[in-house]
Structure formats: C-alpha cells, structure tokens
Amino acid sequence: MTWLRPINLALGVLTVLAPMAHVLELPNKFSLDGNLWLGVQQHLYRGWGPFLGGPTEIGALATSLILAYVRRRSSAVLWPTLIASTGYACMIVAFSFLNLPVNAAVASWTSTTLPSDWATYRVRWEAGHAIAGLLALISLAALVWTYAKETRSP
Q1: Scanning 51, 84, 136, 141, which has the fewest C-beta atoms within 10 Å of its C-beta?
Q2: CA–CA separation, 87 vs 54, rounded Å?
Q3: Cα–Cα distance for residue pair 41/34, rounded to 1 Å
Q4: The whole model's pTM is what?
Q5: Which pLDDT score is estimated for 19?
C-alpha cells in the first residue's frame, strides 16, 4: 500500500487549500456590505465545493482510513493516521452543520430579500471554514509526520 501514501498526502494538501484561502480572505470579507457579500457568496464560490472541497475531503478521509487499517499493527504511525482521519471526518461534520445551511439559505436570497441578520450567517460560514482550515492543517501535519516516519524506517 505504499502507493497510497503519496495520494493521501496530495489529497491532504488539496484539502488545506480551500479553507485556508477562506481564512486568508476573512478580514477583507468582514468589511463587505451585505449586498456585496451576497454577490461574492452566490457567484465567486459557485462550483468550488463540488469540484475541490467535497471530493478532496472525502478522498483524504477514505485514504486515511484505509492507511489506518494498513497501519493498525504499528501504533507509532497508526495514531497520527487516526488523528488525520478524525480531522477529515470533523471537517465534513463542520461543513454539514455550519456551512451547508448557510449555503442553502444564501442561494435563495436576492439583494432585496437579504435578511437583517445576514451578518450572523456570514460569521457562521466563515467560522465553518476557519474550523475546517485548522482541522485540515492538523490532519496534514499528522500525515506528513507519519509519511516521514515510514520513509525513514527500514
């Protein structure tokens, strides 16, 4: 299963990209007014989730779980792999509870139907991506550590 390690690492790197991009743009997004924020949400991010976010998170989780099974006899590499797997699973849970409901609500809004509490939706959406970014970084660090440990071992 050594061929799966680089695929797992590549998926781990890709999984970090989207949420960390959101974290980096967060200060600027908090300065947007409601209509501009709505326009960004409805047009700029269209297609990213199904193209990059979802497939890479699910792929990273699946390959990490397979590697955890393969590594089950070596606790030195099993535990970091389980940490990564847990991180990817929690990313999907965070998206489901924080981002997905906001995405569903925002999809039906217009500049005239923007609710007065739209900023709470923005905070929830950004928090979901910040949590995902942190989990993705922790998961990737665990995978890199495990990969380095395995490639140094005889």
Answers
A1: 51
A2: 14
A3: 10
A4: 0.92
A5: 93
Closest by CA position to 146, among listed 74, 80, 67, 86: 80
What's the distance, CA 5 to chain centroid? 19
**Single-letter residue type at 122:** R
For the chain, the domains span: 4-152
Q: What b-and-e string marks burial along 92-111, b requiring 16 or more CB atoms within 10 Å of the CB?
A: bebbeebbeebbeebeebee
- pLDDT number for residue 20: 94
User: Which residue type is seen at 60?
Assistant: A
3-state secondary structure of 46: coil
CB 133 within 8 A of CB 26: no
Query: Cα–Cα distance between 75 and 127 in angstroms, integer?
Result: 33
Q: Which position has the token pair 């390959």?
A: 63
Query: Is residue 1 predicted with pLDDT exceeding 90?
Result: no
pLDDT at 153: 61
